[in-house]
Write a structure and sequence with these properties.
The chain is α/β, with parallel strands linked by helices. It has one domain: P-loop containing nucleotide triphosphate hydrolases (Rossmann fold). It contains 8 helices and 9 strands. Strands 1-9-8-7-2-6-3 form a 7-stranded mixed β-sheet. α3 packs across α4 and α7 crosses α8. The longest helix is centred in the first third of the chain and has 33 residues. The two termini are 19 Å apart. The N terminus is likely disordered.
C-alpha cells in the first residue's frame, strides 16, 4: 500500500480523508488474496449484489489497510509490554462493523472474515453478531419493548460488553448466545464458542454507541472502547428503505414459508399487503432506530463505506486523526 495516500488527495482539515472508489482501489498493492465466485455467493446476504469487482476494488484494499493496523498494533503492544515489564500474550484485534438494517453490513463482515483469514500468516478470524445478545422475547414483552427489537435498550449490553472484554483480555474460551432469525428469538442453552482468535469481528446495529452516563454524572466504559478498528456501512435513506422492502418481499416468498418461522403469519399476505406492512415496519421501527441511534454513531468509525443506489461502494472516508 502507498505510504502516504494523503499526499495525493486534498486535505479539507477535517478528521476524515474522503476517496472516490477509483482513488481507493488505486491504493491497493498487488495481492494473492482472492475469493472465488462460489465463495462470494455463499457470503452475500439475501439480495446483495456484491461482485468480484467490488471485492477487488473495495474489500481487498480495506483488508490491506486492516493488515497494516493489525501489524502495527502488535508492534505497539509488544513495545508497551516490554516497557511495563509485562509478559502477557497479545490479545485479539477487534473489528466492529456497524450500519443500518438492510445496508449490507453482514456481507461486509463475512467478506472481511474470509479475506483476513487469507491474509499473510493466515490468522484465525471469528465473527460474532450482536443479535445473540438481544434480550429474549419474553423479557422484551415484559418490558413492553418487543416492537423496539434492535434498539439499544433491547440488548443485554452488560453481557455483550463482558463478552468483548473477556475475549480482549485473552480468555481461553468465551461463549456468546445464539439468536435464531427463524424463530425470532434467543435459543435457550445454545452458545457459540470463541477460543482465542487472532481477530474478532463484531457486527451489529449499535456497536458504536457511546457510553451512557450514570445517575451520578459519571460515564462508564463503552463497547467501542475495546475496538481496534471499526467500519460503518452507509447509504442514503431512500436506498436503504428500498433494499429493506426488496428483502422483505424476498423473505416472504422464501424463509417465511417455513412452518417453523415466526414470520409464517406474513407468508399469506398479498404483495400489496406485504408492501404496506414492510413500509410500516420501516417507518415505525427501522427508520427511527437508524435516525436516532445508528447513524449518529457513524462519525465514530475508522472507515465509512458509502454505497450508491445499486449497492456498490462509491466512496470511502478514512479517519486520519
Amino acid at each position: 500500500m502507498n505510504a502516504d495516500p494523503g499526499a495525493k488527495h486534498a486535505d479539507n482539515g477535517g478528521p476524515f480523508v474522503e476517496l472516490t472508489r477509483d482513488e481507493w482501489a488505486a491504493l491497493a498493492d498487488h495481492t494473492d488474496i482472492e475469493i472465488d465466485q462460489a465463495t462470494l455467493e455463499r457470503l452475500r446476504g439475501l439480495g446483495d449484489p456484491t461482485s468480484q469487482r467490488d471485492v477487488e476494488e473495495v474489500y481487498v484494499p480495506l483488508t490491506q489497510l486492516l493488515h497494516l493496523h493489525i501489524r502495527h498494533t502488535g508492534h505497539l503492544y509488544r513495545a508497551s509490554n516490554a516497557y511495563l515489564e509485562l509478559s502477557t500474550t497479545r490479545t485479539p484485534f477487534v473489528i466492529a462493523i456497524a450500519g443500518s438494517v438492510a445496508v449490507g453490513k453482514s456481507t461486509t463482515a463475512r467478506l472481511l472474515r474470509e479475506l483476513l483469514s487469507r491474509s499473510p500468516g493466515n490468522p484465525r478470524v471469528e465473527l460474532i453478531t450482536t443479535d445473540g445478545f438481544l434480550l429474549p422475547n419474553e423479557v422484551l414483552e415484559a418490558r413492553g419493548i418487543l416492537e423496539r427489537k434492535g434498539f439499544p435498550e433491547s440488548y443485554d449490553r452488560r453481557a455483550l460488553q463482558r463478552f468483548v472484554m473477556d475475549v480482549k483480555s485473552g480468555a481461553d474460551e468465551v461463549r456468546a448466545p445464539i439468536y435464531s432469525h427463524l424463530v425470532y428469538d434467543i435459543l435457550p442453552g445454545e452458545f457459540e464458542v470463541v477460543q482465542r482468535p487472532d481477530i474478532l469481528i463484531i457486527e451489529g446495529l449499535n456497536v458504536l454507541q457511546p457510553a451512557r452516563p450514570h445517575s451520578d454524572g459519571s460515564v462508564g466504559l463503552a463497547l467501542s472502547d475495546f475496538f481496534d478498528f471499526s467500519v460503518y456501512v452507509d447509504a442514503a435513506d431512500d436506498d436503504i428503505r428500498a433494499w429493506f422492502l426488496e428483502r422483505f418481499l424476498q423473505l416472504r416468498a422464501t424463509a417465511f414459508q417455513d412452518p417453523d418461522s415466526f414470520f409464517r403469519q406474513f407468508a399469506g399476505l398479498s404483495e400489496d399487503e406485504a408492501t404496506r406492512f414492510a413500509h410500516q415496519v420501516w417507518d415505525e421501527i427501522n427508520g427511527p432506530n437508524l435516525d436516532h441511534n445508528v447513524r449518529p454513531t457513524r462519525e465514530r468509525a475508522t472507515v465509512i463505506l458509502r454505497k450508491g443506489s445499486d449497492h456498490s461502494v462509491e466512496s470511502v472516508r478514512i479517519r486520519k486523526i
